[in-house]
Write a structure and sequence with these properties.
Layout lengths: L1 H31 L15 E8 L5 H9 L35 H17 L14 E8 L5 H14 L2 E4 L9 H15 L2 E8 L3 E2 L1 H18 L10 E5 L1 E2 L24 E2 L3 E5 H9 L10 H8 L6 E5 L3 E2 L13 E2 L4 H8 L15 E2 L12 E2 L2
The protein binds 2-acetamido-2-deoxy-beta-D-glucopyranose (2 copies).
Length: 381
């Protein structure tokens, strides 16, 4: 009798398990279903090429709508006269001691000039020969812990309409809790979605998404072409943004940091207005989320978390205007932080940057050959 019972239990367990995997398969298939068919080269790709993660606070629905109505519409199906030429992109090799080579200031300067020239001349080029099918997905991350009922209801309504909110029930959403938030969001996204790259932005950031994706595709193509050359070394993983290596540790005010004693300044990090990470780096963060030290600032934390890895390619790019104050407006800026809803509409309508910016905030190339305190003195004229 006992034996029979355990056999029955066994069968039930097996059946439940098979049913479970069946359901999981279906769910995964649903997720991987071809995207809606859209004229150009896009659609039917199982994976998301780029995830756009916007950190947004519960009450900022209007900001989210401004983003939905402007730069998120620069989806790939509207673009790509031609991909950005791979030869104009830098991709580091490993040096003799297993360190990734760094990009010199002179080269950063040349690359910016080449980009500006390409931009001028690329208007009339044809479609790329080998167009890749890519899919982009965006999510607004919002913590919903202890939210009032009215605001929760608003969020559910917004979710019903757009289905693009990443609601985090275990996160208490305050401005001073962004490190927790990025960690939770990255955890969920990495475990839920396939993707190759993730861009993190705030809800007051404007991204020239078409340009960014175009270049990211070329970067990714180049990486695929070069893959073999890396041999037994790990492939470089992208950490793309505007870096600072000599920010002083905040000892007062809202961002006061109690626990940063590893170095005199924050280790180099990409400023939080917007930065791109390749999937493996998100995995690394997600896999280690239980043992990472959380610091007051989210962007500082990411920089420090990735500090010891030898396969991180830190791409410092003056086209990321991602500091706390916007810099002087430049037509080549592709990620623009601290933009109001009105400015977003204007940029979308063709204005180069909108707003005057602060000419006192200097723009620089990053000197990786020097110690971090001398990182940032080579100014972009
Ligand atoms: C930050 O969020 C976490 C959960 O993500 C929560 O446990 C914690 O209380 C929050 N801290 C503050 C200061 O709000
Ligand atoms: C993270 O963990 C998953 C599951 O164990 C593993 O497949 C993946 O390779 C890990 N990634 C990194 C970068 O450590």
């Amino acid at each position: 009798m006992r034996r029979l019972k355990s056999v029955v239990t066994f069968i039930v367990v097996i059946a439940a398990f098979s049913f479970g995997s069946f359901i999981t398969k279906i769910l995964i298939l649903v997720e991987k279903c071809p995207a809606e068919h859209s004229g150009l080269h896009v659609a039917t790709h199982a994976d998301n090429f780029l995830l756009v993660l916007v950190l947004s606070s519960p009450r900022n629905m209007e900001q989210r709508n401004a983003i939905r109505g402007t730069w998120l519409r620069l989806s790939p199906r509207h673009i790509f006269h031609s991909y950005y030429p791979e030869e104009l992109l830098y991709l580091p090799n490993y040096g003799p001691n297993g360190h990734l080579e760094i990009e010199l200031v002179e080269h950063q300067e040349i690359r910016l000039k080449e980009y500006i020239n390409w931009k001028k001349s690329s208007k009339n080029l044809h479609s790329p020969k080998r167009a890749r099918k890519i899919k982009v997905k965006h999510m607004f991350a919002i913590g919903t812990m202890q939210l009032g009922k009215a605001i929760q209801d608003n969020l559910y309504r917004e979710q019903g309409k757009h289905n693009d909110l990443l609601l985090l029930p275990n996160h208490y959403d305050t401005y001073y809790n962004l490190t927790e938030k990025i960690l939770q969001a990255m955890n969920v996204l990495t475990q839920t979605f396939e993707f190759s790259y993730l861009i993190k932005v705030d809800d007051d950031t404007y991204v020239k998404l078409d340009t960014l994706i175009n270049e990211l595709i070329s970067y990714d193509n180049k990486l695929l072409h070069k893959e073999r050359e890396y041999g037994t070394n790990p492939l470089p993983q992208l950490y793309w943004g505007y870096f600072n290596g000599r920010a002083t540790i905040k000892l007062h005010g809202q961002w006061k940091e109690y626990n940063y004693y590893l170095s005199k300044n924050y280790l180099p990090y990409a400023l939080g207005g917007g930065y791109v990470l390749s999937r493996k780096l998100c995995e690394y963060i997600s896999n280690n989320s239980q043992i990472l030290s959380l610091y007051a600032s989210e962007d500082v934390s990411v920089g420090t978390w990735l500090a010891p890895l030898r396969n991180v390619y830190r791409w410092h790019d003056p086209r990321f205007d991602t500091a706390f104050l916007p810099r002087k407006c430049k037509s080549y800026h592709i990620v623009l932080h601290k933009r109001s809803m009105e400015m977003m509409a204007q940029i979308f309508d063709g204005k180069l940057c909108s707003g005057t910016g602060h000419s006192s905030v200097l723009e620089y190339y990053y000197d990786w050959t020097k110690t971090a305190d001398k990182c940032c003195d080579n100014l972009v004229p």
